[in-house]
User: Fold UDP-N-acetylglucosamine 1-carboxyvinyltransferase from Sporosarcina ureilytica.
Amino acid sequence: MEVYKIKGGKRLQGTIKVSGAKNSAVALIPASILASTPVTIEGLPEISDVLTLQSLLEDVGGAVTFENGEMTIDPSNIVSMPMPNGNVKKLRASYYLMGAMLGRFKNAVIGLPGGCHLGPRPIDQHIKGFEALGAKVTNEHGAIYLRAEELRGAKIYLDVASVGATINIMLAAVLAKGKTTIENAAKEPEIIDVATLLSNMGANIKGAGTNVIRIEGVEELHGTRHTIIPDRIEAGTFMIMAAAIGDGVTIDNVIPFHVEALTAKLREMGVEVIEEDERVIIPKAAEALHSVDVKTLVYPGFPTDLQQPFSVLLTQATGTSVITDTIYSARFKQIDEIGRMNATARVEGRTAIITGPSELQAASVRATDLRAGAALVLAGLLADGETEIREIQHIERGYSSLIKKLRGIGADIRKEIITEEATVRE
Ligand SMILES: CC(=O)N[C@H]1[C@@H](OP(=O)(O)OP(=O)(O)OC[C@H]2O[C@@H](n3ccc(=O)[nH]c3=O)[C@H](O)[C@@H]2O)O[C@H](CO)[C@@H](O)[C@@H]1O
Ligand SMILES: C=C(OP(=O)(O)O)C(=O)O
Assistant:
């Protein structure tokens, strides 16, 4: 079993570079299925979600190369083969194969997606959108069957501003006949990124990044070259780490506007944050951090994906802080784990209540999901002693070269293989 081992207390210093956005990458790769000629995406993060999608595309006939963050996908020989099991269950974003395969072939069979367990993760709004476009959608034996004679543009109002549903409907609608309008669309930067790729492939999309997206279907899409946006969640994770235990950290390859909600909260806590064109500098960890309350919201609100690492920073603040996650009701599994590390924190319904400052102590802990894993890495960096983090496969779904990057700014973190015997003895 692979684990991360972290010796806490080392102050972070230097420049750390952010990779391409995971939550864009996992939609851009399926989007390439809609083209008739090769699509190249530059700057992809080297994470397991990207590798899983590569092999899913290869399974259905795609010719894919991936080197130095650049993926070229030749979708011309892709066929609509059913994908009910296997790799599709490894990630949440495999649901984008539904929109892309439906858009190109008018039929698809895709297993229900996996991803982090954060409480219910329904896809009813995706299905409502596909049905509005003319697809018949059924759930049979754990897979979604989508079939359409033809797809026709429609007006779709989303009951919740879902990132996944907005992107999936765009994917299905770009080759549909006529005009599609998505109302109450989500506005996340990743949606703009996917719309930019699709537009460069020849799609006609207006309004991505606002709550009304208008799509005029086209006959065919062609290949293109696209550079992915930086990962605002990875950038935010490093900003939080720098605020907790930094001594001059520059986070490079960030769009500062994308992390505005976090920057505002950090400043409210007493952290100095300097924003430049494509980087953010945290000159030093604040001497005294103030407690703050945080509510996660759809973009541009405070992102649910940063709430978990942020909860660890709050253990260092003086006073009681309350986090409310309005997006995912059960996204607090890190709280039990940091409790083992001497944090004073508890969960009440949709909120986590954290009182600080606490001197964290090293322990053996479990990365229950991706961002809980990032939270535990931060807890390990702060703790006295050597922390062991298990189930790191969750972390590696979403953070590219994390060990190398953190070592580059002075962290004492390494990956080790431990035997089951050692696990049992502990
Ligand atoms: C709004 C929001 O913060 N979205 C985040 C969410 O996206 P993700 O794509 O997972 O979630 P959505 O944006 O699609 O969903 C937002 C909310 O709508 C609900 N919902 C969604 C689809 C649906 O068909 N029915 C439905 O009820 C979800 O349960 C959730 O409460 O997690 C991703 C990975 O952690 C983040 O990158 C996204 O920024
Ligand atoms: C929860 C996340 O990923 P996924 O939706 O892929 O499980 C995340 O990116 O924080």
In short: The chain has a mean pLDDT of 96. The pocket of phosphoenolpyruvate (ligand 2) is lined by residues 22-23, 91-93, 115-116, 305, 370-371, 398 (CB under 6 Å).
